[in-house]
C-alpha cells in the first residue's frame, strides 16, 4: 500500500488528534454524569431511609414484628416521587426481621453486601437500587433498615443524557476535525505549491513562486526556493551560451580546415586547366594534366566523405578508415601551426566496432585539434586508437604547456565561458556513449585517455 504524502499525513494526524481529544472529553463528561447519578440516587435513598427508620424504630425497640410489618406496608403504600419495591429490617447478624414487597416476584435481598453501616448498590437484575442504613447509629445492634427503590426514570434520563452528550460530542469532534484538516491544508498550501513546483517534469519550465504569505518562516522558505530557481535558470542560460559558443568555435575551425583542404586541390585543378588550354595539343601534357585533375577530384571527394562521415547523423559502426580520416581532417591546421601529427590504429583493421562512427570521430577530432592548438611549431601530436576486449581506447598526447583551466572544466561537463575549445562537446559525447575520460599531465605536455565500452558483441560483416 503506497504511503500517503506528508502534506496529507499532517492534516489527517491533526484531525485524528482532535477526534481523540473529543472522545476523551466525552468520556470524562459521561463519567461525571454517571457519578452524579450515583450521588443523587444515594442521597435519595438515604433521605427515604431517614424517614422510614424514624417511623419503624419504636416497633424494633419493642420487638413487635407485627407493628414492623404494619409500618413497612404503610410506607409501601405511600410514596412521593419514588417507588419502593421492597422494604425490610435486618438484624445485626444478617437475619431478616421484617419484610414486605410490592410485587409477588421480588429480588432477593443481598445480605452479604451490607458490611458497611450505610450504602447504595445498583441492582444488576432490575432497574433499581438497594439502599440501607442503621436504624440508630449509636446502637448498631438494633439492626439495619433496607429498601429496594425503582430508579428506572433516573436510568432512562441518564441514558438519554449520555446519548445526547455522545451525539453532540461526536458532531463537535467531526466538525472540529474537518476544520482542523482544512486549516492544516491551508497552512501547508505554500509547501504544497513548492512541492508541486519541485516535482515539475522536464517539459515544465522552472519558475519562481510568488511570496504571498505573512508567515516569516514560509516567506524565508519561498525566498530561498526563488533564489535557487534563479540560480538554476542562470546556469541553464550560461550552459546554453557556452554550448553555442563551443559549437561555433568547432564549426569555425572545421570550416577553416575544409577550406584549406579544398583550396589546395582547386589550385592544382586551375593550373591543370590552364596547362590544357596552352598545351592541350600535346598528348603527354594532356595525359599528365588529366591525371592531375583526376587525383584532385579524388582528393576533394575524400575531404567531402570524411566531413560527411564525421558530422552526418547516424549510427554507422566504427571502421579503421573512420579513424584514418582524422589525419586528413586536421592536416590543414597542423600544417599552418607547423605541428606534426601521428595517428596509429591497433586491433581494428577490417573489423566493424559497435560504436557510433560519427561520435567517435568527432571526439578524436576535437581532441587532436585541441592538442594541435596547444602545441608549439615543431612539436608532435600523437593520437592512438586501440580496440581490445570489450572497449575502444583513445589516447591523444601533446608536448604543449598543459591543459588550461577552462578546458579542464569543459572536460568535466561544467559550463565555461567559451574557452573550452570544443571539449565540452567531447565530454557530452563520451557521457552519451557511457565512456570514461582521464587527463594525465606529462613531463612536457598532456595526455588525454578515453575508454569507450562496446555497445554490443562485435560483428564482422
How would you describe this protein?
The chain is of the alpha+beta class. The protein folds into two domains: 6-174, Beta-Lactamase (2-Layer Sandwich); 239-453, 2-Layer Sandwich (Heat Shock Protein 90), CATH 3.30.565.10. The protein has ten helices and twelve strands. The protein has helices at 6-62, 65-77, 152-187, 189-198, 216-279, 283-311, 320-337, 357-374, 405-411, 423-432, and strands at residues 83-90, 96-101, 119-122, 128-134, 144-150, 317-318, 340-346, 353-356, 380-388, 391-398, 436-442, 445-453. The protein has a five-stranded antiparallel β-sheet, covered by helices on one side. A hairpin with a 5-residue loop joins strand 1 and strand 2 (96-101). Helix 1 (6-62) packs across helix 2 and helix 5 crosses helix 7 (320-337). The longest helix has 64 residues, at 216-279. The protein is rod-shaped and about 175 Å long. The model is unreliable at 457-461 (pLDDT under 50).
Give the total of beta strands: 12
The H-and-E topology, N to C, reads as HHEEEEEHHHHEHEEHEEHHEE
| Shape annotation | rod-shaped
CATH superfamily of the largest domain: Histidine kinase-like ATPase, C-terminal domain
Radius of gyration: 53 Å
Identify the CATH class of the largest domain: Alpha Beta
Low-confidence blocks of residues: 457-461
Counted up, domains total: 2
* Overall CATH architecture of the largest domain: 2-Layer Sandwich
